[in-house]
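Inverse folding, one chain.
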């Protein structure tokens, strides 16, 4: 082969690094680079027949409990600004026909009632918080049914109030039931069911 090439006067040529566009991405010879498809939006659940899905990781139940604890801390400190950070944009509070926008309702309560009188009391027992996910609601006995339904990314927490009043004034209902909506890694209060009326 060397003799033939010499006789023809043509030496074999190969591209060198000088001949390649330095701005072009480097890749191995013979490899076709395809851009990865955009992954689908995360879902709470999916069908087994779906070829490719991205599931959303449930927010921890402890994050839901911490939202309820933060609510009671804010109320006993009489801090409406702290409460505002816990409520969703369309949060409601109350029971039956007494449901009202949560922000204005709790601001009125903090203005009319003195919650600092309970600041040194055990208002509820943390170990007795009852937590429910949407899949568990169908199994609750009739006497323990929740006053609302839950979406897949929501959690309900029932709080039995241990100290609901001072010597002269009632400050809480006998129990509060929270509907909590997952937002990122935390929960917002979407609704509080409580049999309580401001006088």
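Residues assigned per position:
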């Amino acid at each position: 082969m060397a003799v033939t090439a010499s006789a023809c006067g043509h030496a074999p040529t190969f591209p060198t690094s000088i001949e390649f566009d330095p701005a072009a991405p480097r890749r191995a010879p013979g490899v076709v680079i395809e851009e990865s498809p955009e992954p689908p939006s995360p879902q709470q659940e999916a069908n087994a027949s779906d070829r490719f899905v991205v599931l959303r990781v449930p927010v921890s139940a402890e994050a839901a409990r911490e939202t309820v604890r933060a609510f009671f801390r804010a109320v006993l400190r009489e801090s409406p600004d702290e409460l505002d950070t816990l409520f969703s944009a369309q949060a409601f509070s109350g029971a039956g026909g007494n449901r009202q926008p949560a922000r204005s309702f709790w601001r009125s309560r903090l203005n009319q009632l003195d919650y600092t009188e309970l600041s040194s009391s055990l208002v509820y027992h943390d170990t007795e918080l009852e937590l429910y996910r949407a899949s568990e609601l169908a199994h609750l006995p009739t006497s323990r049914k929740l006053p609302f339904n839950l979406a897949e990314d929501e959690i309900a927490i029932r709080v039995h109030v241990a100290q609901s009043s001072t010597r002269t004034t009632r400050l809480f209902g006998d129990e509060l039931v929270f509907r909590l909506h997952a937002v990122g890694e935390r929960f917002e209060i979407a609704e509080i069911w409580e049999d309580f009326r401001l006088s």
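The chain is about 20% helix and 20% strand. The first strand starts at residue 87 and ends at 94.
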